[in-house]
Amino acid sequence: MAGFAALTAALLYAGDAADAWHTPWFAAFPVVFGGLFLAGATAWVHYRIRRRSAQSASAENMDAPASTSGSQAIR
After folding, report:
1. Residue 20 resides in a domain
2. By the number of CB atoms within 10 A of the CB, which of 20, 38, 43, 46 ranks highest?
3. Can you tell me the distance from the alpha carbon of 41 to that of 35, in angstroms, rounded to the nearest whole number?
4. What is the tens place of the pLDDT at every residue in 48-74?
5. Mean of pLDDT values over 11-34
6. How far is residue 33 CA from its own chain's centroid?
7. Contact, 32 vs 9, CB < 8 A?
């Protein structure tokens, strides 16, 4: 997401340099910061999904372990 936003800002200024259109100097700020915000939101959603799936997987193993005394007899 952030890389796509940086490439978009670069294309805006490349078009300005080639005289295809005029890009104001401040145009990169909303594009880049918007991309950073979307990247952060995507990472947060991904974190929440992974955390929820990890909690549901660990809920299945809530029984007591085979040995609760702390010592294992090795034969």
Report:
1. yes
2. 38
3. 10
4. 999 888 777 665 556 555 555 556 656
5. 94
6. 15
7. yes
